[in-house]
Amino acid sequence: MGAREAMDRLLAGEATLSNGSLTAGALAKEGGVDRMALYKRHVDLKHAFYERVRSEAQQIPEPERRLRKANAKLRKTLANKEDELQKLRQLVTKLTLASAVLTQSQNTPPTPTAPGPLPDDVVPVRPTI
């Protein structure tokens, strides 16, 4: 297998069989091997290629770049969900308190207001609960 030569060609920007991207798929195509064989049986070559990409090309390998981008997106989504959850918890607390106040006001008899002196023949009656 000409994996080492394929690595050299890709890193030099002189790809002959692939699109020249610095990926394991391009390395497999450039080296004339099946991509799955590179991923399954020749993992050491794949890792060596990515190390050379980091050191010689001063680039982050494409799969790592995609993972970093996905990770950043997921972290942002998680932060937004945490904010939303906090707001919903506050809303639940406020609604629970409002419900308790309304329930209490329905179960409590109205307090009598003093309209003034009652006539002598009127006896106040208090509601029973």
Q: Could you walk me through the main structural features you see in this protein, from its secondary elements to its overall organization?
A:
The protein has 129 residues and is mostly helical. The chain is built from five helices and no strands. The longest helix is centred in the middle third of the chain and has 46 residues, at 62-107.
List the helices and strands and how they pair.
Layout: H1 3-12, H2 24-31, H3 35-40, H4 43-56, H5 62-107
Key features of this structure:
mainly alpha; 129 residues; single chain; 5 helices
Overall shape: it is: rod-shaped
**SSE pattern, N- to C-terminal:** HHHHH
Between the first and last Cα atoms, what is the distance in angstroms?
A: 93 Å
Spans of at least 5 consecutive residues whose pLDDT stays below 50 are none
Q: Percent helix among the residues?
A: 55-70%
How would you summarize what this structure contains?
The protein has helices spanning 3-12, 24-31, 35-40, 43-56, 62-107. It is mainly alpha-helical and 129 residues long.
